[in-house]
UniProtKB/TrEMBL annotation:
Species this chain originates from: Actinoplanes sichuanensis
Protein name as it appears in the record: AAA domain-containing protein
Gene3D superfamilies (UniProt xref): P-loop containing nucleotide triphosphate hydrolases
Alphabetical list of InterPro entries matching this protein: P-loop_NTPase
Length: 65
């Protein structure tokens, strides 16, 4: 799932983002315990490398180094 929040200044984006992150990280129903959570911040041009790196399972990443 991907969640993107946009809007003008003062519309509550930060409050909404914080509430969504709290729900995701707290996982009250244990609905996504086996799924990695990737939070992307910062410039868009740096995000692709981060996303691609998460697509490779951790054991394979260790072997590739």
């Amino acid at each position: 799932m991907r969640i993107a929040i946009s809007g003008t200044h003062g519309t509550g984006k930060t409050t909404l983002a914080e509430a969504i992150c709290a729900l995701v990280y707290d996982d009250p129903l244990d609905a996504w315990a086996d799924l990695p959570v990737l939070e992307l911040n910062g410039p868009l041009d740096a995000r692709l490398e981060t996303v691609v790196a998460t697509l490779v399972p951790l054991p394979e990443r260790r072997m590739a180094r």
